[in-house]
Amino acid sequence: MLLLKLFLFFSFFSSTFSHDLHPLPRPLIIQYPEGIETHFHEFDDELKSQCTSWRFAVEANNLSPWKTIPEECLGYVKDYMTGRGYEMDLERVSKEAGVYANTLELSGDGKYVWIFDIDETLLSNLPYYVEHGYGLEIFDPIEFDKWVQRGTAPAIEPSLQLYEKVLDLGFKIFLLTGRNEQHRSITIENLTKAGFRRWDKLILRNAFSYPAGIVVTDVNRGLIPVTIVLCRGREHHGKLATVFKSEKRSEMVEEGYRILGNSGDQWSDLPGAAASSRSFKLLNPMYYIP
Amino acid sequence: MLLLKLFLFFSFFSSTFSHDLHPLPRPLIIQYPEGIETHFHEFDDELKSQCTSWRFAVEANNLSPWKTIPEECLGYVKDYMTGRGYEMDLERVSKEAGVYANTLELSGDGKYVWIFDIDETLLSNLPYYVEHGYGLEIFDPIEFDKWVQRGTAPAIEPSLQLYEKVLDLGFKIFLLTGRNEQHRSITIENLTKAGFRRWDKLILRNAFSYPAGIVVTDVNRGLIPVTIVLCRGREHHGKLATVFKSEKRSEMVEEGYRILGNSGDQWSDLPGAAASSRSFKLLNPMYYIP
C-alpha cells in the first residue's frame, strides 16, 4: 500500500516535470487527479474488508491448511495483533468461558477437567512474531525453538484470569500442547514465571529423533511402510495435532475424566474425538496448525 | 448514536444562547468543543470494534445460545448484511468449498454426499429480516412461517454456484433443514424457482402437533417425565437442531454414504456425530439455532 502510494506520488511528480515546457522550474505544486485521496481510502477500505473476510474464514475454520498470511494483509494483521482488536477478542472469549464455567455444578469426585493449549492460548509468542512478519514468514522451527528456549513468553492476561477462575471452581487443569518433551522444563519455568500457578497434567508430544523442520514422508522401515508427516516444527512428531490431541482427550475420558471446557487457538485443539462439552476458540490470524 | 449526536448538537446549540448576554442575536455559529468530531469517530470506531469482536465470537462458536443481536450492534449488522461484507464472505466460503470439492476423487459408486442446509445457506431470508430488525427482534415463528409460505426467498448466489459445481462433480446432494414437513411443497417450489435444479434427498423435520412458538417444558405424560424443549419455531420438534442433524447424518453413514462436504450457516449444522470430512460455515450474525 505504502509502495503503491509512493509509486503514484512519484508518477505524478515526474509527470509534472516531463510535460513541462517552461524554461524555468515551475513551483513545486503536485496536482493529484481529483479524488485520488478518496480512491486511496476506498482501496484501503476494500483491502481491509478483504482481510477481515479472510480472518473470518480463518476463525470459522473454512480455509484449507495455509502456510502464511496473505501478503496484502500484513499491515492488517499487524494492526489487529498489536492494537485493541486482539486484546478485545481475548477478553471476550475469556469472559464467555468464565460465564459458562460458573454455570457448571461439579460434584466432589475431582474428575472435571478444563483443557488449555499453551501457545497463543496461555502464553503469547507475539514478541517472536513481531520479529518474524506476523505470520508472513514461512514458519522456521529452529528459530522458533530458540525463542521457546528463552522461556520469556508473557501470559495472555485474559486467559490467566480464566485459568484462576476454573482452578478456584475446582476443575482439574490439563495442559495439552504441541510443544515436545524436550521443552518440558523450560515450559514449566515459563508458565510459572508468567503466573500459572498449578496444573494437574502437562501433556507434551513425545520427543522424536528427527531434527525439527525436516519433512519425511513414506519412510519404509523394513517391511512396514510408515508415513510420517512432519508439519510445523512444534507439531512434527508423526501425526497431525488434531489426531494427537483427540487421542489424548480420549485417554482422559477412558480414565474417567469429564472434559467440560477446552480453550485453544487452533481448530486442531478443539473438535474431534472426546471433544469437550464446550470449546473456546481464541483468535489467531498468524498461523495454522492442522 | 444518531440520537446521541442530536442530543450533543442541541446541547451546544442551547448553551450558545443561554450564556448569551448580548441584546441582539449573535450570528448562528455553533462552536463545537475542540476535537468533538474526533470523539464521535472514536466512539464509532470503538463500537464497530466491539461489534466486530462480537461477530467473531459468533462465527468461532464461542458464545452461549443467544436470542437477539446486541442492541448497540443493530447498525453494524445492518451495514454488514446489506453492504459488501456479507456478500464478500459468502463468495469466499463458496470459493473455498469449491476448491476443496475439486480436490476430491469420487469413485463411481454414487455414495459421495454433499449436505446443504437451506435457510441462510441456499435461500436468503434477508428480505424478512430487513423488516424484522436484522435479528434484534425476538424471533416470531408465526410471522416467519408466513414468510416461508410465500416461497419467495432468493437464492444465495455463491451457494448456487457451489451447488452447481458439486452436482457436476457427481456428488449426491442431500438437503438437511430445520424447516418442517408442512413446508415441504413450498420449499420445493421456492428452491426450484431460485434455481436449485435437483437434489437427491430433502430431509425436513417431522410435523409435530404443537403450534409453532409454544414452549413446553417438563411435560409429564403418565408415569414418564418428558422434557420437550421447543426452540425457534423452525426448530421446535422436540430436539435441538444439533441432535436432529447429527442423527440424520448418522443415518446417511449407516446407509453407506460418505459425507465429504457440508455447508451450513449454523454451528448446529456442522459438528457432532457423523460430521463431514470438511464443513463450511456460512456467516450469519442475525440469529442462533442451538
Task: Report the major sheet of chain A.
Answer: 5 strands, parallel
At CATH level 2, the architecture of chain A is: 3-Layer(aba) Sandwich
Strand content of chain A: 5-15%
Spatial gap, N to C terminus of chain A: 31 Å
**What's the number of extended β-strand segments of chain A?**
7
Average residue pLDDT of chain A: 82
Oligomeric status of the shown chains?
A: homodimer
Radius of gyration of chain A: 24 Å
Q: Could you name the CATH topology of chain A?
A: Rossmann fold
Instruction: Give, in spatial order, the strands making up the sheet with the most strands of chain A.
Output: 3-2-1-6-7
Number of helices of chain A: 9
CATH superfamily of chain A, called what? HAD superfamily/HAD-like
Q: What's the number of structural domains of chain A?
A: 1
Helix/strand order of chain A: HHHHEHHHEHEEEHEE
Q: Percent range for helical residues of chain A?
A: 40-55%
Signal peptide (chains A, B): 1-18
Function (chains A, B): May function as somatic storage protein during early seedling development.
Pfam family, one (chains A, B): Acid_phosphat_B
InterPro entries (chains A, B): Acid_phosphat_B-like, APS1/VSP, HAD-like_sf, HAD_sf
